[in-house]
Amino acid sequence: MGALTDPLVRRGARVVAIEVHPGRARQLRQRFGDAIVVVRADAADLRLPRQPYDVVANPPFGITTALLRRLLQPGSRLRTAHLILPEHAARRWAGPGAPGRARWSRTFAVQLGDHMPRRAFQPPPPRDARILVIRRLHPAAGGRNGVSRPRRPAP
User: Fold this and answer.
1) What's the average model confidence in pLDDT over 136-152?
2) Crossing angle between the packed helical segments 87-94 and 64-71, to the nearest 10 degrees
3) Which of 48, 66, 79, 139 sits most deeply, having the most CB atoms within 10 A of its CB?
4) Distance between CA 93 and CA 113 in Å, rounded?
């Protein structure tokens, strides 16, 4: 519990943990106290921030598509995301046939990150996982962490 939250808190990040299960939400509150904000909600139905934000998450594998569609929707203020997903889903979303790619690829770059064997999890999922990395191509208004495409030099 808190395998992603702990290193983020230790590095001074402002953490908003989304947890649908009441027992796990309570455990997070007990372990981290005021160092984090715990929101009891389903990540697939969560209202996204209006300010630029970053995501580091190991979402339930069953909400992968719903969550990615939400993060990549028009008007999203997402700057970066590092999502631990099933290997096949990460490959699908990083590939040329990703759902909605023609629309969101003007705003976001998506690439495969590190491979994570199923034995790295407790309990192990049915398949290996992979980190999917999403980066905004141009900084969102007020954001500082966007990735800009190189500009051509003036003639």
Assistant:
1) 54
2) 30
3) 79
4) 12
